[in-house]
Amino acid sequence: MKNILKIFVMFIAVFLLSNCTDDFNEINTKPDSFTVDEVSAKYFLTTPQYRLYAPDRYPYWRAHIIHTDRYSGQICFGHSSSWWSDELGYAYNSGYTDAAWDWLSGYVGSLDNFMKLTAPGGEFENEYMYAIGQITKGLYFQMFSDVFGMIPYSEATNPDIVLPKFDEQRAIYQGIITELDEAIATIGDATATGVAVDDVGDNDIYCGGDLQKWKRLANTLKLRIGMRAYGAPGADFAQTAVSSALNAELLDGESDNVLMQKDEEISQWGSACYGDVWYNFGAGSDWTMSKTMIDLLRDNNDPRLAIYAQPAVGGTHKLEKPTEGAEVENFEMRVEYILGILEDAGVDYTDVTLEDGSVEVTMPENMYYVGQPTRLNGKMSSFARYNFFSKPAEVVINKKNNGEIRPELIMSSAEAYFLQAEAAVRGIGTGSAQDLYQEGIRLAMKLWDVSDADIDTYLATEDMAMLNGTEEENLEKIATQRWIAAFTDGFEAWAIVRDMGYPAELAAGVEDGDIFGLGDINGNYPQRMRYGNGVINTNGDNYNAAVAIQGPDVQDTKLWWAK
Question: Per-residue pLDDT tens for 471-484?
Fold first, then answer.
Protein backbone atom coordinates (compact mmCIF):
# COMPACT_ATOMS: atom_id res chain seq x y z
CA MET A 1 0.00 0.00 0.00
CA LYS A 2 2.81 2.38 0.88
CA ASN A 3 4.56 1.57 -2.42
CA ILE A 4 1.35 2.27 -4.40
CA LEU A 5 0.94 5.57 -2.55
CA LYS A 6 4.54 6.57 -3.35
CA ILE A 7 4.06 5.76 -7.03
CA PHE A 8 0.83 7.79 -7.11
CA VAL A 9 2.51 10.80 -5.46
CA MET A 10 5.43 10.63 -7.89
CA PHE A 11 3.02 10.45 -10.86
CA ILE A 12 1.13 13.55 -9.67
CA ALA A 13 4.43 15.41 -9.15
CA VAL A 14 5.71 14.58 -12.64
CA PHE A 15 2.35 15.58 -14.16
CA LEU A 16 2.31 18.91 -12.36
CA LEU A 17 5.97 19.59 -13.17
CA SER A 18 5.47 18.96 -16.88
CA ASN A 19 2.47 21.30 -16.94
CA CYS A 20 4.41 23.94 -15.04
CA THR A 21 7.29 23.65 -17.52
CA ASP A 22 4.91 24.11 -20.46
CA ASP A 23 3.41 27.16 -18.76
CA PHE A 24 6.90 28.48 -17.99
CA ASN A 25 7.99 28.27 -21.64
CA GLU A 26 4.81 30.00 -22.73
CA ILE A 27 5.07 32.74 -20.12
CA ASN A 28 8.74 33.42 -20.91
CA THR A 29 8.29 33.81 -24.66
CA LYS A 30 8.27 37.57 -25.39
CA PRO A 31 5.41 38.38 -27.73
CA ASP A 32 7.58 41.02 -29.53
CA SER A 33 10.80 38.98 -29.73
CA PHE A 34 12.54 38.15 -33.04
CA THR A 35 12.03 34.74 -34.58
CA VAL A 36 14.72 33.00 -36.59
CA ASP A 37 13.10 34.26 -39.79
CA GLU A 38 13.32 37.87 -38.61
CA VAL A 39 17.00 38.02 -37.60
CA SER A 40 19.44 39.47 -40.13
CA ALA A 41 22.88 41.03 -40.41
CA LYS A 42 21.26 44.06 -42.00
CA TYR A 43 20.54 45.38 -38.51
CA PHE A 44 24.31 45.62 -37.99
CA LEU A 45 24.93 47.74 -41.10
CA THR A 46 23.39 51.13 -40.33
CA THR A 47 25.63 51.95 -37.36
CA PRO A 48 28.99 51.62 -39.13
CA GLN A 49 27.57 53.56 -42.05
CA TYR A 50 26.52 56.67 -40.14
CA ARG A 51 29.50 56.57 -37.78
CA LEU A 52 31.87 56.84 -40.74
CA TYR A 53 30.42 60.09 -42.09
CA ALA A 54 28.46 61.49 -39.16
CA PRO A 55 30.01 60.38 -35.88
CA ASP A 56 29.11 61.95 -32.55
CA ARG A 57 29.80 65.62 -31.91
CA TYR A 58 33.20 65.09 -30.31
CA PRO A 59 35.04 63.96 -33.47
CA TYR A 60 32.64 65.82 -35.79
CA TRP A 61 33.85 69.06 -34.25
CA ARG A 62 37.52 68.17 -33.82
CA ALA A 63 38.21 66.01 -36.88
CA HIS A 64 35.82 67.57 -39.38
CA ILE A 65 35.41 71.25 -38.53
CA ILE A 66 38.66 72.09 -36.74
CA HIS A 67 40.87 70.09 -39.09
CA THR A 68 39.74 68.73 -42.45
CA ASP A 69 37.06 71.30 -43.30
CA ARG A 70 39.53 74.06 -42.51
CA TYR A 71 42.61 72.37 -43.98
CA SER A 72 40.54 72.16 -47.16
CA GLY A 73 40.53 75.96 -47.17
CA GLN A 74 36.75 76.17 -47.46
CA ILE A 75 35.90 77.59 -44.02
CA CYS A 76 37.68 79.73 -41.43
CA PHE A 77 37.86 80.55 -37.75
CA GLY A 78 39.72 83.61 -36.48
CA HIS A 79 37.05 86.29 -36.86
CA SER A 80 36.38 88.79 -34.09
CA SER A 81 33.84 86.59 -32.29
CA SER A 82 35.72 83.30 -32.64
CA TRP A 83 37.21 81.49 -29.68
CA TRP A 84 40.31 80.75 -31.72
CA SER A 85 42.56 82.34 -34.30
CA ASP A 86 42.50 80.68 -37.70
CA GLU A 87 45.90 79.22 -36.81
CA LEU A 88 44.07 76.57 -34.81
CA GLY A 89 44.90 73.16 -36.20
CA TYR A 90 47.94 74.46 -38.05
CA ALA A 91 49.54 74.73 -34.63
CA TYR A 92 49.42 71.23 -33.13
CA ASN A 93 46.93 70.58 -30.35
CA SER A 94 47.07 67.07 -28.93
CA GLY A 95 43.49 67.14 -27.62
CA TYR A 96 41.98 67.91 -31.01
CA THR A 97 44.32 65.61 -32.91
CA ASP A 98 43.78 62.73 -30.49
CA ALA A 99 40.02 63.02 -30.98
CA ALA A 100 40.43 62.57 -34.73
CA TRP A 101 42.83 59.64 -34.39
CA ASP A 102 40.78 57.88 -31.72
CA TRP A 103 37.61 58.12 -33.82
CA LEU A 104 39.11 56.86 -37.06
CA SER A 105 41.31 54.17 -35.54
CA GLY A 106 38.48 52.93 -33.31
CA TYR A 107 35.83 52.98 -36.01
CA VAL A 108 36.67 49.70 -37.72
CA GLY A 109 35.29 47.44 -34.98
CA SER A 110 31.61 47.78 -35.83
CA LEU A 111 32.23 47.39 -39.56
CA ASP A 112 34.42 44.35 -38.97
CA ASN A 113 31.65 42.83 -36.85
CA PHE A 114 29.20 43.21 -39.75
CA MET A 115 31.70 41.64 -42.14
CA LYS A 116 32.40 38.70 -39.84
CA LEU A 117 28.67 38.02 -39.53
CA THR A 118 28.21 38.01 -43.30
CA ALA A 119 31.47 36.32 -44.33
CA PRO A 120 31.54 32.68 -45.50
CA GLY A 121 30.76 30.60 -42.42
CA GLY A 122 29.46 33.63 -40.54
CA GLU A 123 26.31 33.50 -38.47
CA PHE A 124 24.40 35.43 -41.17
CA GLU A 125 26.46 34.44 -44.18
CA ASN A 126 25.50 36.59 -47.17
CA GLU A 127 27.97 37.24 -49.97
CA TYR A 128 26.21 40.40 -51.13
CA MET A 129 26.13 41.99 -47.70
CA TYR A 130 29.80 41.05 -47.33
CA ALA A 131 30.51 42.85 -50.63
CA ILE A 132 28.80 45.96 -49.24
CA GLY A 133 31.09 45.67 -46.23
CA GLN A 134 34.16 45.45 -48.49
CA ILE A 135 33.19 48.63 -50.36
CA THR A 136 32.46 50.47 -47.11
CA LYS A 137 35.83 49.27 -45.84
CA GLY A 138 37.43 50.82 -48.92
CA LEU A 139 35.75 54.17 -48.24
CA TYR A 140 36.95 54.01 -44.65
CA PHE A 141 40.58 53.06 -45.21
CA GLN A 142 40.98 55.56 -48.06
CA MET A 143 39.72 58.32 -45.74
CA PHE A 144 41.78 57.13 -42.75
CA SER A 145 45.00 56.74 -44.72
CA ASP A 146 44.62 60.03 -46.56
CA VAL A 147 44.45 61.79 -43.19
CA PHE A 148 47.46 60.19 -41.49
CA GLY A 149 49.39 58.26 -44.14
CA MET A 150 50.71 54.94 -42.91
CA ILE A 151 48.15 53.26 -40.62
CA PRO A 152 47.34 49.74 -39.40
CA TYR A 153 45.59 47.98 -42.29
CA SER A 154 46.56 44.39 -42.99
CA GLU A 155 46.61 43.50 -39.28
CA ALA A 156 44.01 46.01 -38.08
CA THR A 157 41.20 43.48 -37.60
CA ASN A 158 43.24 40.42 -36.67
CA PRO A 159 42.06 39.43 -33.17
CA ASP A 160 45.35 37.64 -32.50
CA ILE A 161 47.44 40.78 -33.07
CA VAL A 162 47.18 43.34 -30.30
CA LEU A 163 49.75 45.74 -31.72
CA PRO A 164 49.28 45.87 -35.50
CA LYS A 165 51.94 47.14 -37.84
CA PHE A 166 51.48 50.30 -39.91
CA ASP A 167 51.20 49.57 -43.63
CA GLU A 168 52.62 51.80 -46.33
CA GLN A 169 50.05 53.76 -48.29
CA ARG A 170 50.92 52.02 -51.53
CA ALA A 171 50.05 48.66 -49.96
CA ILE A 172 46.84 50.08 -48.47
CA TYR A 173 45.71 51.44 -51.82
CA GLN A 174 46.48 48.13 -53.52
CA GLY A 175 44.63 46.24 -50.82
CA ILE A 176 41.55 48.46 -51.17
CA ILE A 177 41.51 47.97 -54.94
CA THR A 178 41.79 44.19 -54.52
CA GLU A 179 38.80 44.13 -52.17
CA LEU A 180 36.80 46.43 -54.43
CA ASP A 181 37.43 44.09 -57.35
CA GLU A 182 36.27 41.14 -55.24
CA ALA A 183 33.10 42.99 -54.24
CA ILE A 184 32.38 44.02 -57.83
CA ALA A 185 32.77 40.43 -59.02
CA THR A 186 30.55 39.15 -56.22
CA ILE A 187 27.75 41.57 -57.02
CA GLY A 188 27.79 40.80 -60.72
CA ASP A 189 24.26 41.33 -62.04
CA ALA A 190 22.56 41.04 -58.63
CA THR A 191 20.29 43.87 -57.60
CA ALA A 192 19.51 43.04 -53.95
CA THR A 193 21.13 41.23 -51.07
CA GLY A 194 18.16 38.86 -50.76
CA VAL A 195 14.44 38.87 -50.13
CA ALA A 196 12.41 39.74 -47.06
CA VAL A 197 14.67 39.93 -44.02
CA ASP A 198 17.76 39.26 -46.15
CA ASP A 199 17.25 42.47 -48.18
CA VAL A 200 19.22 45.27 -46.50
CA GLY A 201 16.75 47.80 -47.97
CA ASP A 202 16.27 50.89 -45.81
CA ASN A 203 18.90 49.71 -43.33
CA ASP A 204 21.42 50.64 -46.02
CA ILE A 205 21.52 54.44 -45.70
CA TYR A 206 24.03 54.88 -48.53
CA CYS A 207 22.44 53.10 -51.50
CA GLY A 208 19.09 51.83 -50.18
CA GLY A 209 20.03 48.21 -50.87
CA ASP A 210 20.62 48.79 -54.61
CA LEU A 211 23.55 46.50 -55.37
CA GLN A 212 24.13 47.91 -58.85
CA LYS A 213 24.53 51.38 -57.32
CA TRP A 214 26.98 49.85 -54.85
CA LYS A 215 28.93 48.43 -57.80
CA ARG A 216 29.03 51.82 -59.51
CA LEU A 217 30.18 53.36 -56.23
CA ALA A 218 32.95 50.77 -55.99
CA ASN A 219 34.13 51.47 -59.52
CA THR A 220 34.11 55.23 -58.90
CA LEU A 221 36.06 54.80 -55.66
CA LYS A 222 38.57 52.66 -57.57
CA LEU A 223 38.89 55.42 -60.15
CA ARG A 224 39.45 58.01 -57.40
CA ILE A 225 42.15 55.88 -55.78
CA GLY A 226 43.80 55.03 -59.10
CA MET A 227 43.93 58.67 -60.20
CA ARG A 228 45.29 59.75 -56.82
CA ALA A 229 48.00 57.10 -56.93
CA TYR A 230 48.83 57.78 -60.59
CA GLY A 231 52.40 59.05 -60.85
CA ALA A 232 53.29 58.26 -57.22
CA PRO A 233 56.49 56.28 -56.56
CA GLY A 234 55.98 52.59 -57.29
CA ALA A 235 52.32 53.00 -58.23
CA ASP A 236 52.56 50.61 -61.17
CA PHE A 237 49.06 49.35 -60.34
CA ALA A 238 47.40 52.76 -60.79
CA GLN A 239 46.91 52.81 -64.55
CA THR A 240 45.48 49.29 -64.55
CA ALA A 241 43.00 50.33 -61.86
CA VAL A 242 42.07 53.46 -63.79
CA SER A 243 41.58 51.57 -67.05
CA SER A 244 39.48 48.94 -65.31
CA ALA A 245 37.26 51.57 -63.71
CA LEU A 246 36.87 53.56 -66.92
CA ASN A 247 35.70 50.44 -68.72
CA ALA A 248 33.03 49.76 -66.11
CA GLU A 249 29.88 51.56 -65.03
CA LEU A 250 30.48 54.58 -62.79
CA LEU A 251 28.14 56.79 -60.80
CA ASP A 252 26.07 58.64 -63.35
CA GLY A 253 23.21 61.10 -63.02
CA GLU A 254 21.42 62.77 -60.13
CA SER A 255 19.90 59.55 -58.83
CA ASP A 256 23.34 58.00 -58.46
CA ASN A 257 24.66 60.55 -55.95
CA VAL A 258 25.55 58.66 -52.80
CA LEU A 259 24.18 60.85 -50.02
CA MET A 260 23.44 59.96 -46.43
CA GLN A 261 20.33 61.63 -45.09
CA LYS A 262 20.83 63.00 -41.59
CA ASP A 263 18.67 61.78 -38.72
CA GLU A 264 17.10 64.96 -37.36
CA GLU A 265 16.16 63.45 -34.03
CA ILE A 266 19.16 61.37 -32.99
CA SER A 267 21.24 62.85 -30.17
CA GLN A 268 24.38 64.77 -31.09
CA TRP A 269 26.19 62.20 -28.96
CA GLY A 270 25.00 59.50 -31.33
CA SER A 271 25.40 61.29 -34.64
CA ALA A 272 26.20 64.96 -35.17
CA CYS A 273 25.69 67.62 -37.81
CA TYR A 274 27.20 71.07 -38.30
CA GLY A 275 24.27 72.67 -36.50
CA ASP A 276 25.10 70.74 -33.33
CA VAL A 277 28.22 72.90 -33.07
CA TRP A 278 26.97 76.09 -34.71
CA TYR A 279 23.93 76.65 -32.49
CA ASN A 280 25.14 75.13 -29.23
CA PHE A 281 27.92 77.53 -28.35
CA GLY A 282 27.14 80.96 -29.75
CA ALA A 283 29.40 82.80 -32.18
CA GLY A 284 32.54 81.55 -30.45
CA SER A 285 32.40 78.26 -32.35
CA ASP A 286 31.03 79.71 -35.59
CA TRP A 287 32.98 79.70 -38.82
CA THR A 288 32.94 81.81 -41.94
CA MET A 289 33.25 80.99 -45.62
CA SER A 290 36.78 81.29 -46.97
CA LYS A 291 37.94 83.96 -49.38
CA THR A 292 39.13 81.26 -51.78
CA MET A 293 35.67 79.70 -52.01
CA ILE A 294 33.70 82.93 -52.20
CA ASP A 295 36.06 84.47 -54.77
CA LEU A 296 35.88 81.43 -57.05
CA LEU A 297 32.10 81.43 -56.95
CA ARG A 298 31.54 85.20 -57.14
CA ASP A 299 34.21 86.06 -59.71
CA ASN A 300 33.06 83.32 -62.08
CA ASN A 301 29.32 84.07 -61.77
CA ASP A 302 28.77 80.65 -60.27
CA PRO A 303 25.09 80.17 -59.35
CA ARG A 304 26.10 78.16 -56.28
CA LEU A 305 27.27 81.32 -54.51
CA ALA A 306 23.87 82.16 -53.02
CA ILE A 307 23.26 78.48 -52.26
CA TYR A 308 26.53 77.77 -50.46
CA ALA A 309 26.72 81.03 -48.51
CA GLN A 310 24.86 83.97 -47.02
CA PRO A 311 25.68 87.63 -47.73
CA ALA A 312 27.78 89.30 -45.06
CA VAL A 313 25.67 90.89 -42.33
CA GLY A 314 27.66 94.13 -42.67
CA GLY A 315 26.87 97.21 -40.59
CA THR A 316 29.17 99.66 -38.83
CA HIS A 317 32.24 98.40 -36.98
CA LYS A 318 35.01 100.17 -35.15
CA LEU A 319 38.59 98.99 -35.63
CA GLU A 320 40.20 100.27 -32.46
CA LYS A 321 43.75 101.56 -32.59
CA PRO A 322 45.92 100.43 -29.67
CA THR A 323 47.43 103.24 -27.59
CA GLU A 324 50.72 101.56 -26.79
CA GLY A 325 52.84 98.55 -27.56
CA ALA A 326 54.34 97.02 -30.67
CA GLU A 327 50.99 96.69 -32.40
CA VAL A 328 50.50 100.45 -32.73
CA GLU A 329 52.77 100.62 -35.78
CA ASN A 330 51.00 97.62 -37.40
CA PHE A 331 47.54 99.12 -37.05
CA GLU A 332 47.36 100.92 -40.40
CA MET A 333 48.80 97.92 -42.24
CA ARG A 334 46.16 95.61 -40.78
CA VAL A 335 43.33 98.05 -41.49
CA GLU A 336 44.50 98.38 -45.09
CA TYR A 337 44.61 94.63 -45.44
CA ILE A 338 41.00 94.18 -44.29
CA LEU A 339 39.77 97.08 -46.42
CA GLY A 340 41.54 95.49 -49.36
CA ILE A 341 39.51 92.32 -48.81
CA LEU A 342 36.30 94.37 -48.95
CA GLU A 343 37.47 96.15 -52.09
CA ASP A 344 38.32 92.85 -53.79
CA ALA A 345 34.76 91.73 -53.09
CA GLY A 346 33.36 94.90 -54.66
CA VAL A 347 31.92 96.17 -51.39
CA ASP A 348 30.72 99.78 -51.41
CA TYR A 349 31.99 100.65 -47.94
CA THR A 350 32.96 103.87 -46.15
CA ASP A 351 35.75 104.30 -43.65
CA VAL A 352 36.23 107.19 -41.24
CA THR A 353 39.31 107.83 -39.11
CA LEU A 354 38.26 108.89 -35.61
CA GLU A 355 40.04 111.34 -33.30
CA ASP A 356 41.85 108.57 -31.44
CA GLY A 357 43.14 107.07 -34.68
CA SER A 358 40.63 104.22 -34.72
CA VAL A 359 38.79 103.51 -37.97
CA GLU A 360 35.05 103.10 -38.32
CA VAL A 361 34.01 100.97 -41.28
CA THR A 362 30.45 100.84 -42.61
CA MET A 363 29.25 98.39 -45.26
CA PRO A 364 25.74 97.72 -46.56
CA GLU A 365 23.85 95.04 -44.72
CA ASN A 366 23.14 91.62 -46.21
CA MET A 367 24.21 92.60 -49.71
CA TYR A 368 27.75 91.42 -50.47
CA TYR A 369 29.41 88.02 -50.46
CA VAL A 370 32.81 88.35 -48.82
CA GLY A 371 35.12 85.49 -47.88
CA GLN A 372 37.53 85.52 -44.95
CA PRO A 373 41.21 84.98 -45.71
CA THR A 374 42.46 81.61 -44.55
CA ARG A 375 44.89 81.24 -41.62
CA LEU A 376 44.66 84.74 -40.09
CA ASN A 377 46.71 84.98 -36.90
CA GLY A 378 45.41 85.97 -33.49
CA LYS A 379 46.46 89.60 -33.85
CA MET A 380 44.15 89.95 -36.86
CA SER A 381 40.99 88.83 -35.08
CA SER A 382 39.87 92.29 -33.93
CA PHE A 383 40.21 93.54 -37.52
CA ALA A 384 38.43 90.54 -39.08
CA ARG A 385 34.99 91.58 -37.88
CA TYR A 386 32.58 88.66 -37.88
CA ASN A 387 29.94 90.57 -39.84
CA PHE A 388 32.36 91.52 -42.62
CA PHE A 389 32.25 87.95 -43.92
CA SER A 390 29.78 85.47 -45.34
CA LYS A 391 28.55 82.56 -43.28
CA PRO A 392 27.54 79.13 -44.63
CA ALA A 393 24.01 78.76 -45.92
CA GLU A 394 21.34 77.80 -43.41
CA VAL A 395 20.83 74.40 -45.05
CA VAL A 396 24.45 73.58 -44.17
CA ILE A 397 24.39 74.73 -40.55
CA ASN A 398 20.75 74.13 -39.68
CA LYS A 399 20.09 72.58 -36.31
CA LYS A 400 18.09 69.41 -35.85
CA ASN A 401 14.31 69.52 -35.79
CA ASN A 402 14.39 72.90 -37.45
CA GLY A 403 13.92 72.13 -41.13
CA GLU A 404 16.12 70.59 -43.77
CA ILE A 405 19.64 69.48 -42.91
CA ARG A 406 22.10 69.00 -45.74
CA PRO A 407 22.82 65.27 -46.20
CA GLU A 408 26.35 63.93 -45.86
CA LEU A 409 28.17 63.63 -49.18
CA ILE A 410 29.62 60.13 -49.60
CA MET A 411 30.42 60.33 -53.31
CA SER A 412 28.83 62.17 -56.22
CA SER A 413 28.26 61.47 -59.89
CA ALA A 414 29.95 64.82 -60.52
CA GLU A 415 33.21 63.47 -59.15
CA ALA A 416 32.98 60.47 -61.49
CA TYR A 417 32.83 62.86 -64.45
CA PHE A 418 35.62 65.11 -63.18
CA LEU A 419 37.86 62.06 -62.73
CA GLN A 420 37.05 60.91 -66.26
CA ALA A 421 37.86 64.39 -67.57
CA GLU A 422 41.18 64.38 -65.70
CA ALA A 423 42.05 60.97 -67.14
CA ALA A 424 41.25 62.23 -70.64
CA VAL A 425 43.42 65.33 -70.21
CA ARG A 426 46.30 63.20 -68.93
CA GLY A 427 45.97 60.87 -71.91
CA ILE A 428 45.05 57.78 -69.91
CA GLY A 429 41.34 57.91 -70.66
CA THR A 430 39.13 58.35 -73.67
CA GLY A 431 36.24 60.62 -74.54
CA SER A 432 35.95 64.38 -74.78
CA ALA A 433 37.52 66.00 -71.75
CA GLN A 434 35.40 69.10 -72.35
CA ASP A 435 32.13 67.17 -72.47
CA LEU A 436 33.04 65.12 -69.40
CA TYR A 437 34.11 68.26 -67.54
CA GLN A 438 30.91 70.15 -68.33
CA GLU A 439 28.76 67.19 -67.33
CA GLY A 440 30.66 67.12 -64.04
CA ILE A 441 29.85 70.80 -63.50
CA ARG A 442 26.21 70.23 -64.41
CA LEU A 443 25.83 67.37 -61.94
CA ALA A 444 27.73 69.26 -59.23
CA MET A 445 25.30 72.15 -59.58
CA LYS A 446 22.25 69.89 -59.72
CA LEU A 447 23.44 68.41 -56.44
CA TRP A 448 22.57 71.82 -54.94
CA ASP A 449 19.35 72.29 -56.94
CA VAL A 450 20.67 74.90 -59.35
CA SER A 451 18.17 75.44 -62.17
CA ASP A 452 18.83 74.06 -65.65
CA ALA A 453 18.67 77.56 -67.10
CA ASP A 454 21.36 78.87 -64.74
CA ILE A 455 23.55 75.86 -65.44
CA ASP A 456 23.20 76.29 -69.20
CA THR A 457 24.14 79.96 -68.94
CA TYR A 458 27.21 79.18 -66.87
CA LEU A 459 28.39 76.41 -69.20
CA ALA A 460 27.92 78.58 -72.27
CA THR A 461 29.43 81.84 -71.04
CA GLU A 462 32.00 81.31 -68.30
CA ASP A 463 35.66 80.64 -69.06
CA MET A 464 35.77 78.50 -65.90
CA ALA A 465 33.49 76.07 -67.73
CA MET A 466 35.88 75.67 -70.68
CA LEU A 467 38.92 73.43 -70.96
CA ASN A 468 40.60 75.81 -73.38
CA GLY A 469 44.11 76.08 -72.03
CA THR A 470 47.30 74.08 -71.67
CA GLU A 471 47.20 70.64 -70.09
CA GLU A 472 48.19 72.10 -66.72
CA GLU A 473 45.64 74.91 -66.97
CA ASN A 474 42.93 72.40 -67.78
CA LEU A 475 43.96 70.20 -64.84
CA GLU A 476 43.77 73.28 -62.62
CA LYS A 477 40.18 73.92 -63.68
CA ILE A 478 39.20 70.29 -63.12
CA ALA A 479 40.81 70.23 -59.68
CA THR A 480 39.17 73.52 -58.74
CA GLN A 481 35.72 72.35 -59.80
CA ARG A 482 36.22 69.09 -57.88
CA TRP A 483 37.21 71.14 -54.84
CA ILE A 484 34.14 73.35 -55.11
CA ALA A 485 31.89 70.31 -55.59
CA ALA A 486 33.37 68.68 -52.46
CA PHE A 487 31.99 71.43 -50.21
CA THR A 488 30.96 69.92 -46.84
CA ASP A 489 33.32 66.96 -47.41
CA GLY A 490 36.50 68.46 -46.04
CA PHE A 491 38.34 65.13 -46.11
CA GLU A 492 38.13 64.88 -49.89
CA ALA A 493 38.48 68.61 -50.58
CA TRP A 494 41.70 68.66 -48.55
CA ALA A 495 43.02 65.62 -50.43
CA ILE A 496 42.34 67.32 -53.78
CA VAL A 497 44.52 70.31 -52.83
CA ARG A 498 47.34 68.06 -51.63
CA ASP A 499 47.15 65.79 -54.65
CA MET A 500 46.65 68.25 -57.51
CA GLY A 501 47.99 71.48 -56.01
CA TYR A 502 44.83 73.53 -56.61
CA PRO A 503 43.42 75.96 -55.63
CA ALA A 504 47.02 77.13 -55.87
CA GLU A 505 46.71 79.90 -53.28
CA LEU A 506 45.90 77.27 -50.66
CA ALA A 507 48.59 74.81 -51.69
CA ALA A 508 51.21 77.58 -51.58
CA GLY A 509 50.73 78.11 -47.84
CA VAL A 510 51.29 81.49 -46.19
CA GLU A 511 54.37 83.61 -45.44
CA ASP A 512 53.53 86.97 -43.84
CA GLY A 513 53.63 86.38 -40.09
CA ASP A 514 52.12 89.80 -39.40
CA ILE A 515 48.88 88.68 -41.06
CA PHE A 516 48.82 84.90 -41.01
CA GLY A 517 49.36 82.18 -38.44
CA LEU A 518 52.33 80.11 -39.56
CA GLY A 519 51.59 77.32 -37.10
CA ASP A 520 54.13 74.64 -36.34
CA ILE A 521 54.87 74.18 -40.04
CA ASN A 522 56.28 77.59 -40.95
CA GLY A 523 53.27 78.51 -43.05
CA ASN A 524 53.43 75.39 -45.22
CA TYR A 525 50.23 73.76 -46.38
CA PRO A 526 49.28 70.88 -44.02
CA GLN A 527 49.82 67.50 -45.66
CA ARG A 528 48.58 65.18 -42.93
CA MET A 529 47.55 65.05 -39.29
CA ARG A 530 49.86 63.84 -36.55
CA TYR A 531 49.26 60.46 -34.96
CA GLY A 532 47.31 60.25 -31.71
CA ASN A 533 49.13 59.95 -28.41
CA GLY A 534 47.28 56.75 -27.59
CA VAL A 535 48.92 54.77 -30.38
CA ILE A 536 52.31 56.34 -29.70
CA ASN A 537 52.15 55.23 -26.07
CA THR A 538 50.74 51.74 -26.67
CA ASN A 539 52.20 50.74 -30.05
CA GLY A 540 55.46 52.64 -29.98
CA ASP A 541 57.63 50.19 -31.93
CA ASN A 542 55.29 50.06 -34.91
CA TYR A 543 54.75 53.81 -34.71
CA ASN A 544 58.52 54.40 -34.82
CA ALA A 545 58.86 52.04 -37.77
CA ALA A 546 56.20 53.99 -39.65
CA VAL A 547 57.84 57.34 -38.94
CA ALA A 548 61.19 55.96 -40.13
CA ILE A 549 59.61 55.11 -43.50
CA GLN A 550 57.13 57.94 -43.97
CA GLY A 551 59.00 60.83 -42.41
CA PRO A 552 58.67 62.97 -39.28
CA ASP A 553 55.34 62.87 -37.46
CA VAL A 554 54.49 66.48 -38.28
CA GLN A 555 51.77 68.12 -40.33
CA ASP A 556 53.85 69.10 -43.36
CA THR A 557 55.31 65.65 -44.08
CA LYS A 558 53.94 64.75 -47.49
CA LEU A 559 52.08 61.52 -48.00
CA TRP A 560 53.23 58.92 -50.54
CA TRP A 561 50.90 60.02 -53.32
CA ALA A 562 51.69 63.73 -52.84
CA LYS A 563 55.48 63.43 -53.11
Answer: 999 999 999 999 99
